[in-house]
Design goal:
The complex is a heterotrimer.
Chain A: H1 2-22, E1 43-49, H2 55-73, E2 76-82, H3 85-98, E3 104-108, H4 112-118, H5 126-131, E4 156-160, E5 164-168, H6 169-174, H7 184-193, E6 200-202, H8 211-222, E7 228-229, E8 232-233, H9 238-252, H10 266-274, E9 278-284, H11 288-292, E10 301-304, E11 325-326, E12 329-334, H12 341-351, H13 354-364, E13 367-368, H14 371-380, H15 385-392, E14 394-395, H16 403-423, H17 428-447
Parallel strand pairs in A: 1-2, 1-3, 6-9, 11-14
Antiparallel strand pairs in A: 3-12, 4-12, 4-13, 5-9, 5-10, 7-8
Chain B: H1 3-24, H2 45-53, H3 56-86, H4 92-104, H5 107-117, H6 123-130, H7 143-168, H8 173-182, H9 186-214, H10 218-224, H11 235-245, H12 249-274
Chain C: H1 5-9, H2 31-56, H3 60-65, H4 76-84, H5 87-118, H6 124-134, H7 139-157, H8 165-189, H9 194-201, H10 206-217, H11 219-235, H12 238-243, H13 251-258, H14 270-291
Helix pairs in contact in C: 2-14, 4-14, 5-8, 5-11, 5-13, 6-8, 8-11, 9-10
Classes of the chains: A alpha/beta, B mainly alpha, C mainly alpha.
């Protein structure tokens, strides 16, 4: 208590004010009935990602949603946007700290565990699930990252952006390849056939801040290594080393990627594929359509599932986790400090109806999480059918507050290896020592989980 | 007359720093954030972790050396620019304004533009190819340090230029006339007559630019991303990752405070040496 | 009592006119050297700027690929930046906040510097050193504490503070003050004391001296410290991103949106980002163009006689 005395009177008032606000409000407040919520005169504040691909459409969507919600409940919806995930994290921190801020947050799925660990969001009990139309409404795989387990969920899936492989149909046909292989080794072989002159088999963004870890995660899970097992980090397993070796091998041994790609961010990889200079673009999502449809490969590309058989194997090992993609997309959560929780759930309910999900898909190109709507798209849209399929085979990243650090550690292995990759080769021992650093960092972070 | 500014500074800077100090002594992370007032008090544990288990010293080393080298480069450039832009010539207003542009552009724009230009197949390497030099990797590996220095220098030399330009204005006309009467050459005049007037602004610019460069976060962040390659792991990016991505506020505050203390010592020595605070420099009138 | 000095001592109370001729006596550098320096620096500055312009009229895929010269020319970006984000509101907010900070800061800094330079009192050196020390504090360290303070003030006073332009204004003003004060301190130290001494002998009050003599003589310093204060408010992202709401968003935060990338999705809207950057740099450069004429020497010419 010495510290508090040191702070003294000056901070006393601040502390008092904050303490009053910091008191948690429990999830089941309010006495209004779950069916009809009356919010006349109220405004619900929602924080959502700014959509740079469809900005005017997004504004129109905001107005539309607010108008519809007002008709339904009498309350308006005020949207606030953030530019990047980092911005949103900062906003969450300041809101949690001060106990005031948006009522509803749209969160990237991989950040849901971090948000959960702050304890600042409403847990979804039976009442809340009823308020949003029930769990059965959603594609089952998308619920995988709503919480650490079924009794402690905080997030309702809003939209889905699974990761898939894009391939150039023309180049594959010219080489006599029917469709992309279902194993990583097979894919590499096909890519070798497709590498001639200044055309490369694959476009990979080694210097991206987000892409690399998804490869390693996918390959590790497919080999049976979930990366986090009961509070222990298992990055030092042989499967993860094999994953990195395969990933790096594409540039050092197989030479199926552009040597310049060691410096590429995702945008450069997409540009290379869009110019027809690469046959495969792994780790892309449906939003790439916007760029691809206006580029040289318009009409000549298709999507497929990423390989499911890990490197070094010809068929999935017994303990393999069939991970086609991370559960990627947006979840929607309600803040504990919000005074309009029933309204918030009413909004979530509205946004996850098949009709609204269809509007969302038509406007932004993001996959629905509503099961009914997802099925409809899979039936109607040939280009996007594989993406819906991928969403159904999505596996969640480990649900722990330490995941942010683990993700950073996985990417760090790649970042620190880039100079070696650029020089043309990287030794196994180098990879091993980088992985050890990552393992230590991951374990340290897991040990801090409270 | 000091009161209003003083009150503002106490409220908006001093008290937050005191709070940050408190945070550094406490185990504040994502799990304890909500009830931050009751976060467990752990004394100097954060500092110990910062000193032993984090790359803090390495980051401080990189930040300090980087800041010093940038200064060494930008000081002569800024002085030369100010001297050149002082005298009247046609288009001087335009030139003076253009000189300011690198400093005016937001750091994140500067970072994005240079990052695109420094790509392995980007503009810079293409130009170097024309003269037969293989540029290599600028955004990772050992060359990234020099890339950071070059870009920071490009965007911050106008800082010296502005301060020196304002200092040049306080040179009396009579001084110029006296030098002309004495028949002094331009270099002699610069060295013995003009430069003494610039001692004050330059001394100030050196220390401020040093501090700004040490705390420069956005440029390295946008140029190199997160996690940063070890060669350009600067302190602000490290504290940012710790605080805003790992949610380890206590540790990050400890790192920042520790580094502040480390930097304060040479700073105090510098102040003494140039007598910046007491103002015993400049020409006698 | 009115200041009778004006008639007796012809003190320059307004910024002087720029000398028309290039007086060889005033020359600092030989012509060739001056031309060389200007040419080199203009090149260094303008080439990347040219790249920004080229990128702004290019297609996004082409920029992602790393091209310098546009593969296709389109000026559409300059139109779409206004709708992609609310750039107009952002510009307005930034001009109001940063402009206000610049003006207030410059003048508060002058008065504070004057006291610190001309008067001797206990704690003077400490204050000067403290002002310098405050410059070393990184924004990331105090972001959360500042937010906490403002939000607790909100709770105590009952008025919403976070999200208002006023809160941002106060924050930026406070951050800009130490440096601006120091700029003025160094500048004022270079001013001759005789003018003030004469005024004081005549019985002028400190306030009069400050406004009639010091400020007019300090235009170069005021302009420079004003510019720095303006730039601080104009380019800050960290504090603006947490302390504004959609109506009070500044241009720096709005620009961030252009740099946003959807994970694994389409190419970022580089063209618009570059166009917006140019558009946002324009106000500052224009302001400087207007005010740089005050950056002239010889202000005390004839004043002492």
């Amino acid at each position: 208590m010495k510290a508090r005395k040191v702070l003294g009177v000056v901070a006393g008032a601040a502390i008092l004010g904050l303490a009053l606000q910091g008191c948690s409000s429990d999830g089941s407040s309010g006495g209004s009935s779950p069916e009809a919520v009356d919010g006349t005169g109220k405004t619900l504040n929602v924080l959502i990602a700014a959509n740079t691909l469809y900005p005017t459409e997004q504004k129109a969507w905001f107005d539309d949603v607010s108008a519809k919600f007002e008709k339904e409940t009498g309350a308006k919806v005020a949207f606030e946007t953030f530019a990047s995930a980092n911005d949103e994290l900062t906003k969450i921190q300041t809101s949690v700290l001060s106990g005031q801020g948006p009522d509803v947050y749209s969160l990237g799925t991989t950040f849901t565990p971090t948000a959960y660990s702050t304890g600042a969001f409403v847990k979804l009990g039976d009442k809340q699930w009823d308020q949003v139309g029930g769990r059965d409404r959603f594609v089952p795989a998308t619920l995988g990252i709503a919480g650490p387990d079924k009794d402690n969920e905080i997030a309702v899936p809003l939209s889905s952006r699974p990761f898939v492989l894009a391939y150039n149909t023309e180049l594959l046909a010219a080489a006599g390849i029917d469709k992309p292989a279902d194993s990583w080794d097979g894919l590499a072989e096909q890519a070798k056939q497709l590498t001639t002159g200044d055309q490369y088999g694959m476009a990979v963004a080694y210097a991206d801040s987000f892409d690399p870890w998804k490869f390693i995660w996918g390959m590790s899970l497919q080999a049976g290594n979930p990366l986090v097992d009961d509070g222990k980090a298992t990055l030092d397993d042989a499967t993860t080393a094999a994953a990195y070796e395969a990933y790096f091998g594409w540039v050092t041994k197989d030479k199926i990627v552009d040597p310049a790609s060691v410096g590429w961010k995702n945008a450069q990889a997409v540009a290379a594929f869009a110019d027809g200079k690469a046959a495969f673009l792994p780790m892309t999502s449906a939003t790439s359509r916007v760029t691809l449809d206006q580029s040289a490969v318009a009409g000549k590309y298709a999507y497929a599932l990423l390989p499911l058989i890990p490197p070094g194997e010809t068929k999935a090992p017994g303990d393999s986790i069939e991970a086609a993609t991370i559960i990627s997309g947006d979840n929607i959560v309600v803040a504990n400090y919000s005074k309009n929780q029933d309204l918030a759930f009413a909004l979530i309910n509205m946004l996850t109806t098949p009709e609204q999900q269809k509007i969302y898909f038509d406007t932004f190109g993001e996959m629905p999480t509503n099961a009914e709507e997802a099925e409809a798209i899979q039936g109607d849209n040939e280009l996007l059918a594989p993406i819906v399929d991928a969403a159904a085979k999505a596996v969640g990243t480990p649900f722990t507050g330490a995941w942010g650090d683990i993700q950073l550690a996985l990417v760090n292995v790649v970042v620190q290896s880039i100079p070696a990759l650029q020089s043309g080769s990287i030794s196994d021992s180098e990879i091993e020592s980088q992985i050890k650093t990552a393992q230590d960092a991951a374990q340290a972070s897991l040990d801090r989980v409270k | 007359m000091l009161a209003p500014g003083g009150i503002l500074m106490v409220l908006v800077i001093v008290i937050p720093v005191a709070l940050a100090l408190y945070i550094s002594l406490v185990d504040l992370d994502q799990y304890t954030l909500r009830q931050w007032i009751s976060a467990p008090f752990i004394g100097l544990q954060n500092y110990v972790e910062a000193a032993t288990a984090s790359p803090m010293f390495h980051a401080v080393g990189i930040s300090v050396s980087f800041a010093l080298i940038v200064e060494v480069i930008t000081l002569p450039v800024g002085v030369a620019a100010a001297l050149a832009a002082q005298n009247r010539f046609r288009g001087r207003a335009f030139v003076r304004s253009v000189f300011l542009i690198p400093y005016v552009l937001p750091a994140f724009v500067v970072g994005t533009v240079w990052r695109t230009m420094l790509q392995p197949n980007g503009v810079v390497n293409n130009l170097l190819d024309v003269v037969g030099i293989d540029g290599g990797l600028w955004l990772n590996g050992p060359q990234s340090y020099w890339a950071l220095i070059a870009v920071q220098a490009w965007s911050s030399w106008p800082f010296f230029y502005l301060l020196v330009l304002s200092g040049l204005q306080s040179v009396d006309n009579e001084v110029h006339e006296a030098a002309a009467i004495d028949g002094a050459g331009w270099w002699t005049k610069l060295r013995y007559v003009i430069f003494p007037y610039l001692r004050g602004p330059v001394a100030l610019a050196l220390i401020i630019s040093f501090l700004h460069n040490i705390n420069s976060f956005t440029l390295p962040f946008v140029l190199f991303g997160v996690p940063a390659p070890t060669d350009v792991e600067v302190l602000p990016v490290l504290t940012y990752i710790a605080s805003f991505q790992s949610f380890r506020f206590g540790l990050s505050a400890a790192m920042a405070v520790f580094s502040l203390v480390l930097i304060a010592i040479p700073l105090a020595i510098y102040l003494r040496a140039v007598k910046l605070d007491t103002g015993d420099e400049g020409p006698k009138r | 009592m009115t200041l009778e000095l004006d008639k007796e001592q012809h003190i320059e109370a307004a910024p002087p006119r720029v000398p028309r001729k290039d007086d060889p006596v005033m020359r600092l550098l030989p012509r060739p050297l001056m031309v060389a320096i200007v040419a080199v620096l203009m090149l260094v500055v303008l080439v990347p700027l040219l790249y920004i312009f080229m990128a702004s009229i290019n297609s996004d895929v082409s920029v992602a690929r790393g091209d310098f010269w546009p593969s296709e020319i389109t000026f559409a970006n300059y139109a779409s930046i206004w709708t992609t984000v609310d750039l107009g509101t952002g510009l307005f907010n930034s001009v109001v906040v940063a402009g206000g900070v610049a003006v207030v800061c410059a003048f508060v800094a002058v008065s504070m510097a004057y006291v610190l330079v001309r008067y001797s009192f206990f704690g003077r050196l400490t204050i000067l050193r403290a002002l310098l020390a405050l410059q070393s504090i990184p924004g990331t360290l105090i972001l959360l504490p500042v937010f906490v303070i403002f939000s607790s003030l909100s709770t105590i006073v009952g008025v919403q503070i976070i999200g208002t332009r006023g809160a941002l204004f106060v924050t930026y003003l406070t951050f800009a003050l130490p440096f601006s004060t120091w700029v003025m301190v160094t500048y004022l130290r270079g001013l001759p004391r005789e003018l003030e001494e004469a005024a004081r002998i005549d019985g002028a009050s400190s306030w009069l001296i400050l406004t009639r003599i010091i400020i007019p003589l300090s235009w170069p310093g005021i302009v420079v410290s004003g510019i720095f204060a303006f730039l601080l408010g104009w380019n800050d992202v960290l504090f603006a991103s947490v302390m504004t709401n959609p109506e009070t968003r500044t241009v720096a935060v709005a620009l961030q949106v252009f740099g946003a990338t959807a994970e694994g999705g389409a190419v970022p809207i580089y063209g618009q980002m570059m166009a917006a950057s140019l558009v946002c740099a324009v106000p500052v450069v224009v302001l400087y163009l207007v005010f740089q004429r005050y950056l002239v020497g010889g202000l005390t010419a004839g004043g002492v006689k």
